[in-house]
Amino acid sequence: MKKLTSLFVAMIAAALLSGCQALLSQGPELRGTGDLGLIIERATGSVLVIDHSGREVLGRVEGLGDLSHASVVYSRDARYGYVFGRDGGLTKVDLLTRSIVNRVIQSGNSIGGAISQDGRYVAVSNYEPGGVNVFDSDTLEPVLTLPATYVNDIGEPDQSKTVGLVDAPGNQFVFSLFDAGEIWTVDMITTPPEVARFDAGKEPYDALITPDGRYYIAGLFGEDGLSMMDLWHPGKGVRTILPDYGKGEQRLPVYKMPHLEGWAIADGYAFVPAVGRHEVLVANMDDWTMEQRIPVQGQPVFVMASPDNRQIWVSFAHPKNNVVQVIDSQTREIIRTLEPGKSVLHMEFTPRGEEVWVSSRDSNRITVYSTRTLEEVATLSAQKPSGIFFTSRAHELGL
Asked: Does residue 394 sit in helix, strand or coil?
């Protein structure tokens, strides 16, 4: 009798184990997310889930709408990516199941977003109708609407396009108003969230926050220079840095607005793309004065430092956008000119900086370079790829 009972128990245990294994096999792969990422396929409304350790594509997620200008932020656990699409779509993607968790259309035309310091809120910056909308990161339920209203040049109330939205320490969001020439901060800890407005320069088009979260800097399209706000001392307001850097010079046509999000800081200096010029500007961060202008082969779009700050990688606007140039941050000389493919759109360093991934839209590929040798080490196929976003961004400010 005891033998029969033991046999029965063993059979039940085996059945339960088999059932659990079957359930596990149907669930998400048991793995970490630290070496995963998403690559935007802009023409097909899809994203690739990639593993940058294995340099491989794990899968494709479709149905994300218009991704002609798209960006991604990540949840604190780096499992979920929040994709901001051009059509106003906010899509939550599960990197492990490679599926859409939720998707909302929150405006007519959006231009990126941010996730709060505590990971509870996702904010979206909008061109149409303007303003910023904030959502619960778990459910994507709306939390706050900020219309970004101002009085226009003819004295009438209007709503501004918003740009340069970043997360900041103290669980804040910071963004710029293109039409109003203002910078706003939003404190998500207070109830209701407290909004503060500051005058900035003319037509801020994009912005960045320094890695320590202290300085918020907006590039200006309507005038030379940049607007800078010290978030440690917001009462001091906004001041202009690098003023009149193009004074007396003929402007070139601007083929693509530079992006400041991936800006470079190295050895106490900031490397910034110059609007409408074939230059990378070098600013001394002690007093924010112009230190040097580095001539480059075209109009820079992204100016990005490697994680060790030894190299500055520069991509360019049309028509010279098939090239990436690498600058030595100490000598400030161009040490290599690379040709990853047609229409280079974005670059992303692996978290510790041993490699950089470069998207080439019109070559339908991603090219991976060693930052030590500056040689190509791999290529991956993609459909009209643009932005590359690794999950390491989950643990960095302003990304």
From this structure: helix
